[in-house]
Amino acid sequence: MAYFSYGLLNVGSVPSYYREVHQAICSRTDERVPLSVFQRVLSRTSLSVTVQNQIAEHVNSGDGFLSKVSLYKGLALIALAQQGKPPSPKLLENFIQEFPKPQLGEPKELQSLKMQTVQESPLNLSLTLGELLKKDTIKVELIPEKKGLFLKHVEYQVTSECFTVSVYRRYTDFDVFHELLLQRYAYRVVPALPPKRALKGVLTSMSEREFIEGRRRALGRFLNLVARHPVFSEDELVKTFLTFSGSDVQTKLRDACKKLGDEFMTCKYATQAKDYLPADIQSQFSSSRELIKNIHNSFQKLRDRAERMAERSKENATDLLMFGKELSSLGSDESPVPILASCKSPWAALRRSVKGLSVEFSLLSEKAAQQGRREEDDVVEKLNLFLDLLHSYRDLCERHEKGVLHEHQRALQKYGVMKRQILSATVQPKEQVSVEQLESRIVQQENAIQVMELRSYFSLFCLHQESQLIFTYLPITSHILGAFVNSQVQGHKEVSLSFIYLGVKAIHFNVRQS
């Protein structure tokens, strides 16, 4: 019997069963155990998927392997969980007695687990954020507007790195594409489009330009989220929108959607979705939804703060520019300086230097403007991208509850009414034709309910995957923080150097005057 210490935890004695399990599932050349093998050990237990995931998370070091000590910790957590206790490492703190033995069968029976090929469940998304981002990068640029009879039409150049092609699209093309995506993928996170607004003012007005630029950015985020989605990215609709250069892309998109149908009709797992769902799928969905809601609220606050910082940088740039212009105006005044009896005024020389300093303030203004653009492009835009995804997840949850579940309940209610009618018809004899029609309608309704049940399970299947997608995107937080820190460091460094140079010039001028 041996004792071991896990980090700062003083834990109890290790049964020989633990060492036998370790010898059964580790390789001959490495005492570590692959995480995938440990996950197969977990799958042999009667524990729920949620508890299995919690145990795997507690022992996962991030390199894909478990040390011997980590395996022992995992086996102890399995045994405690099988006793009905929550799988928390705190349970192992100051554990004096021998660790309990998990119910896994004979150790020799576990040897085959390290030989098995991993068969990933189609329910699980195995992509990383890096792999999603590599799928494609879409650029959406404004092209010179074409004047219509009454309005100027805004057109966009859409360029896909994946397909290495550029196409031209109007907002109405995006609108049709979005509508068809929702029809085909009602159970997925389809990002929302930015609002369409009638161009009442002229495009040269500041507010109109800002609106069009904001819409261009939002359309770019929409396409990037769609093109990087693990399911959408493989769809013919997406390929058509990003590559078709014909005159009527909307007709082409509608034809493709009619030919394909909705995802339930084309996905090979649609009718088997129930078999892949964990028993506690509803509680998993509820907890994921609540957590994602909290993340959504926090990211909205982060985005609002980042927008305010970017706006302050722009305002600072304007103030510096105006300050420099005032100095220039002051130094450009050619009015003669009167000769006073009491002293000789240095103003004639001073105003020339003041005018020279105004150039430095123009440079400072440009540095501050660059800082604002960096904050907007590298920080605010990334926050908005993730927020767009979170918004679409919230919309998906509402579609699931108000759409699929509501329709299922209505179908069951209708079926109940029909059953009561047929019972009434048997008690009170009616025409044979009407009874047969009612029976036929009941059969049709039973078939409809069966399809709706399958759709309901498939909706949960997709929801589970889309929840995973949200968590896959979460490491974008480190990208955002890195961009924020780099932006602040670079901006303050550039502005500080400019101010130092400005200060040196001012001191030099003061010395010369004295």
From TrEMBL:
Keyword Membrane tagged: yes
An annotated GO BP: early endosome to Golgi transport
Signal is among the record's keywords: no
Subcellular localization(s) per the UniProt record: Membrane
PX domain boundaries: 134-248
InterPro entries per the UniProt record, alphabetical: AH/BAR_dom_sf, PX_dom, PX_dom_sf, SNX8/Mvp1, SNX8/Mvp1_PX, Snx8_BAR_dom
Record-level GO cellular component terms: cytosol; early endosome membrane
Keywords: Membrane, Protein transport, Transport
GO molecular function list: phosphatidylinositol binding
Lipid bilayer topology: Peripheral membrane protein
Family assignment from sequence similarity: Belongs to the sorting nexin family.
Protein name, as recorded: Sorting nexin-8-like
Organism of derivation: Sinocyclocheilus anshuiensis
Gene symbol of the encoding locus: LOC107703396
